[in-house]
Design a protein that fits this description.
By secondary structure, this protein is mainly beta. The protein starts with 7 loop residues before the first strand and ends with a helix. Strand 10 and strand 11 form a beta hairpin. The strands form 2 sheets. Strands 1-2-5-4-3-6 form a 6-stranded antiparallel beta barrel. Strands 7-8-11-10-9-12 form a 6-stranded antiparallel β-barrel. The chain has 4 helices and 12 strands.
Length: 199
Amino acid sequence: MFSGIVAATGRIQSITPLEDGVRLSVDTGALGLADVAIGDSIANNGVCLTVVGMDGACAQFDVSRETLNCTVGLDVAGGEVNLEKALRADDRLGGHIVTGHVDGVGEVVKFEPVGESHELVIRAPRDLAGYIARKGSITVNGVSLTVNAVTGTDFSINLIPHTVEVTTLKQLAPGARVNLEIDIIARYVERMLAWRQGE
């Protein structure tokens, strides 16, 4: 479980093919691994991955082919990733409840400065659009964000300077693809309604 508050950015140092996926070696930068053990979870661009090895400031993660097929940003050596360690029971929940299970991939429609901030507009897959609500929460590449407006399958977000500065979102441009995780509460509401309707 995560909060969507990115602690550091890292860089994929190498990608080693496995029988059904890849092993990533990620330089975790300022994240710090002193309190991390083999088997712990670290979100990489919003994807919950298990630490399978450590070497200095680098952590290794095995990524299945299924995960690679439904996410972006984990298959390019040299690529930057947003990093967050799994929450502890006594941690502050500064963002929102994030599972690290990406629901789909969206496409950036617009990323432009507006005053001191940036406006980010993303087109969500149609099957996810109904879960995205104005003033609701969404995770974009592992970053907990608040939705400002929704129009059809497009939704807009205001990024404050701090968020742009400390995450990889600064690299976005129209056409870029991003990992999306909808608010877990929306999933449960849909299931409860469907259950009551006998589905």
